[in-house]
Amino acid sequence: MVDRFIARFGEEKIALLHSKLSIGERYDEWKRIEKKEAKIVIGARSAIFAPVQDLGIIIIDEEHDTSYKSDMTPKYNAKEIALYLAKKGNFPLVLGSATPNVDTYYRIEKSNGLITLKNRANNSKLPNVEVIDMKEELAVGNRTMFSRKLYDMIQENLKNKKQTILFLNRRGYSTFVMCRDCGYTATCKKCNITLTYHMKENKLKCHYCGYERANFTECPECKSKNIRYFGTGTQKLEAIINKTFPEAKTIRMDIDTVSKKNSYEDILNKFKYENIDILIGTQMVVKGHHFPNVTLVGVIAADSSMYMSDFRSNERTFQLLTQVARKSWKRKRRGKRHNTNI
Ligand SMILES: [Zn+2]
Ligand SMILES: [Zn+2]
Q1: Per the confidence metrics, is the pTM higher than 0.85?
Q2: Does 2-110 carry CATH code 3.40.1280.10?
Q3: Residues whose CB falls within 8 Å of the CB of residue 325, separated by 6 or more in sequence, listed in order
Q4: Most buried residue, 76, 276, 290, 321, by most Cβ within 10 Å?
Q5: How many angstroms does the Cα of residue 54 sit away from the middle of ligand 2?
């Protein structure tokens, strides 16, 4: 976005605010905004507090993104602040999204403020989306994570040197660990959700608060050794892919692999330029990147996020799957899409 705005308006008019800036850099940007040297401020959530003198418009792109709400103290929602500023200053607030939140859509419709983009960028077409019922796969004896069709299409892509993205919105190896004898499941004491097994460190982790503990081979309740691992996360998916398609070069992207500085960009650049066949990732792969050689996106367990304990889980699932499908909207060639349900 910064590159586009600089190309159009020139570098000296643009200020940039985000958490990767050093305090010094942030101070310089802050001063440039305050002195009215920078006319356009581009930034993440906290940019809503930029000291713009004669604010004339606020544009919030991808308004459905949950990261506009800050869970850190002081808690705030950048969208609510933007709405307040726009009302107070009597200027427009533009909320953009291909998958707006239902409450946003309701509010905008009520205020007659709805503007619809009827054509996609470059007039590109929607990719073909196909839903495959994994119950039917099971009925014909396919016990793998992939439908036969997805398997064939991955093979075909490997043969034709085309790239594939596999999307699974659960990190870690197994999603829960249970004692087969007494039913004990390891949960987080604070959050009351099941702990996820991470194979590399042999630890159980809470994906909500970050709590972690050592894995166990003996049930803490009944001392049984009959411990089983259920559910599949991205680590396990990667292991399965490497076993199923040994010739494929793969790379994984989730919070566990991008914790080091810059490695988010590193992974994406590797995928783009170093002949990686398959990118395996969580919702992180959904955010605005363009891969011209990707012709297939497989969504594993596409319906699993519908069972989250969140009143918005259906809405979120729709948004996520639509955004995954959009990964090829910007191309002229039609991408193949493929949703698998488990
Ligand atoms: Zn037990
Ligand atoms: Zn927790």
Answers
A1: no
A2: no
A3: 126, 127, 129, 297, 337
A4: 321
A5: 44
